[in-house]
Specification:
By secondary structure, the chain is of the alpha+beta class. Helices cover 42% and strands 8% of the residues. The strands form two sheets. It has a four-stranded mixed beta sheet with strand order 1-4-3-2, with no helix packed on it. Strands 5-6 form a two-stranded antiparallel sheet. Helix 3 packs across helix 6 and helix 4 packs across helix 5.
Length: 258
Amino acid sequence: MTEPSAAPKTHLAALGPFCAFETHATGAEPVAPWRKLSEVAQEGSGVLRERVASVRASLAANSGRPPGAVEPRVAASVAHLGLVARVISPVLGLAALHGLPSRPLTRDDLWWGSALGGAFRLSLPREKVTPVSGGGTRPAGAIAADMLAGPVRDLVDAFAPFSVSRRILWGNVASAVNGAATGITAAAPSLAQPARAAALAFLQQPPLRDTHTLDTRNGRFTRRSCCLIYRAAPDAAGAVCGDCVLMRGRGAGERGRR
C-alpha cells in the first residue's frame, strides 16, 4: 500500500495506457469530447450500436472484407471486451495499490472519449480516487463486488441483446481482470503480488467464479468460454487468445458449442 499522500493517477499512468486515467469533479457534467459511459446502456441512444458497428468494420477491414462479413455478435463481444478491459484496468490498479475507489463507482461516474485501436481516454471522479489522510481505503474484495454489481454488470446487460451469451460476456470480464493484473506485473514486477491479489479478489466474486480456471501452482489462467474473435477472420479460422478455452482443442465440434 502506498502512502496516503501519493498520487494514484500518476502511479497508474506509469503502468501503461489501460491503467491511466484522468479525473473530474463528482457530479460534474461532461463537455465534449467527453461522454458518460452510461450512454452505452441507454436504450435508443445509438451509442452502443455505433460502437459495435465501428468495431465490426474495423475487424472486417483487417482481412480486407466488408463489414457484413463479420457476425454482429462477434463484433459485440470484441467491443464489450475492449470496454470492460479499459474500465477494469485502472480500478484493479487502484484497488491493488491504494485501496481505492473509496466509494462505489456508478456508470454515470465514468467518462470516456470514444476511440478505436487501443486505450481510449477515461476519466474517474476525483473525490473517489484520491486518498484521504487518516482513512478512506477499502478492501479489494469490496471494491470488486461494487464494480461487478455496478458498471460492469451494466455493460454485460447492455451487450446481451446482441445475441452474445452472458457466459461469454462474464468470461470477457474475467479475461479483462487477468489481463489487467498481467499488464501491471509486466510493467512493474515488484507489484506482482498486490496486482495478483486484487485480481483474485475480483475472480472470486460470484459472477466470475465459474468463468475460468486458475492454476495456483503457476498462475496459469484459462477462461471457460471464447470471446469469438477468431470468427472475425475468413472462414472463422482466426487465431485465438492466449487464455482461450479453445487453446486446449480447436476441433470443429468444440467451436460449434461456443
